[in-house]
Amino acid sequence: MKYETVIGLEVHVQINTNTKIFCSCSTEFGAPANTHTCPVCLGMPGSLPVLNEKFLKHSIKVALAIDCTVANFIKFDRKHYFYPDLPKDYQISQYDKPLASNGHLDIDTDAGIKRIRILRAHMEEDAGKLIHTPTASLVDYNRTGTPLLEIVTEPDLNSADETYAYLTQLKSILEYLEVSDCDMEKGSLRCDANISIRPIGQKELGTKTELKNMNSFKGIRDALNYEIKRQEKQLDAGNLIIQETRLWDETKQKTFSMRTKEEAHDYRYFPDPDLVPFTVDSLTIENIRKALPEFPKAKKQRLISEYDLSEYDAGVISADKHLGLYFEQAAKQYNNPKNICNWLMGDIMNYLNTNNIPAIKLKDLLPPKKLTAMLEMIDQNIISGKIAKKILPEIITTGKEASVIIKEQNLSQISDTSELESIIKQVITENDKVVEELKSGKDQALMFLVGQVMKKTRGKANPQMVNAIINKQINNS
Ligand code: ADP
Ligand code: MG
Ligand code: ZN
Q: Do 375 and 452 sit in the same domain of this protein?
């Protein structure tokens, strides 16, 4: 049978603040266990939570960026469950009155732009961390009370690839807002994926499973693709899908059942009496809206119209805020934006990816001025593009200007006609067979000869001049 996949996501984003959601403990990552705790985040009786204002404001920014309606009325609820990582035995969250609702995010798919509706976004506190050793389970409450914004989609995603696109787009927006570092490995972005399948044409949704424990976007995509196949096999075999939570095992590349619906909790939500509801006036919300930065989509359009970049190039450059900023910095100093773009998307991105360096670091490693100075040297025929590619990593690692490296290693392009003529004469005598082929019209033969000249000059010969001189010498012979 043919099935349609239905996916809905619950994404937990850690919002950057110096202190926790309801107390003044630090949110710093990696501190010795239980050193960032106090009576409030440990849930001591009599201690009183106070909402972090910066967290609220950042959350409103995110809500507006994903086109949600932001509620004026702010209320928190207690969600009860018993687990050692939760000292109060309840988590402060938002239940029936979330901060934001009815938003959407438009993603690029093979079939064009698709709108993914966002059901709600609500504020909550994180739990602690359990560390299991062979003999005991230890708990670290440093994480307890870390501010989270949970963003829940409608079941509008229909494939693992669409899910990947949604997450990439969401992350890009969060990074543009500078409200989260979105580092899945540190747990500052976590995603539960709900997935079901249904026969094509069926209206009602199939029974879903909830996937947890993926620690990269790729892991989420792999887990979903695995789960689609697993569910299809079940239905094809005449079995029912059991509503359950399943964990992704990265090494085995499989999902495993963690708990079924029967074991599901009754959270007994009720309003937190320690946190008095309050209102955020519309003017404050509008002021936050006015101060929002330019978002990836708008930036992409601007890069196309202002710099004449292609749709594709503008998409890549605008997807990362820091890459976009870098590009515009460089374009101010150098008048061939397309050329900057090619270098950024080619050798530079390649270098960053291979060395696992985030784009935000690029401006320090290779100040735009250093890049454009190198590009100018290519334009002025002082160095070839090939040499430029070779010295780029050196400019980055040593911090030296291109001109210095060129001088030190004697890499300037040979544009001296008589010098090139004598090298080419030599190449022609050494390769008479190829020269005959060239005379009979084989273009590849020319490329071979140019290659030989490049070899002799260690890539320093000016390629246009080499081409012209070879043709001249052969025509004259
Ligand atoms: P739960 O109470 O189990 O958390 P919710 O109804 O709150 O379930 O939905 C959680 C997420 O699961 C949402 O993103 C929603 O879009 C998605 N979802 C709900 N039902 C389905 C389904 N049948 N198939 C796929 N996703 C679903
Ligand atoms: Mg859920
Ligand atoms: Zn605290």
A: no
User: CA 390 to CA 347: how far, in whole Å?
Assistant: 10
Same domain (yes/no): 252, 303: no
Taking 3-state DSSP, the helix, strand and coil percentages for the chain, each rounded to the nearest 5, stand at 45, 20, 35
Q: Is residue 220 part of a domain?
A: yes
Between the CA of 259 and the centroid of ligand 2 the distance, in Å, is 13
Q: How far is the CA of 29 from the centre of ligand 2 (A)?
A: 26
Q: Tell whether 227 and 366 lie within a shared domain.
A: no
| Domain shared by 22 and 154, yes or no | yes
Q: Quick one: which of 159, 150, 196, 168 has its CA closest to 105?
A: 168
Q: Cα separation of 187 and 12, whole Å?
A: 9
Q: How confident is the model at residue 477 (pLDDT cuts 50, 70, 90)?
A: low
- d(Cα 259, Cα 38) in Å, to the nearest integer? 33
pLDDT in tens, 94-133: 999 999 999 999 998 989 999 999 999 999 999 999 999 9
- CB-ligand 1 contact for 194 (6 Å cutoff): yes
User: What token pair was written down for 400?
Assistant: 């030296």
Instruction: Evaluate: CB of 209 within 6 angstroms of ligand 1.
Output: no
For 253, the 3-state DSSP assignment is coil
Q: Contact at 8 Å (CB) between 75 and 56?
A: no
For residue 157, give the nearest of 122, 114, 198, 119 by alpha carbon: 114
Q: What is the CATH number of the domain that holds 426?
A: 1.10.10.410
Tokens of 21: 């959601």
Range of the domain at 87: 3-286
Question: Could you say which ligand is closest to the alpha carbon of residue 158?
Answer: 1
Q: Report the alpha-carbon distance of residue 162 to residue 217 in Å, rounded.
A: 11
Asked whether residue 131 falls in the same domain as residue 209, the answer is yes
Q: Is 241 in the pocket of ligand 1 (CB under 6 A)?
A: no
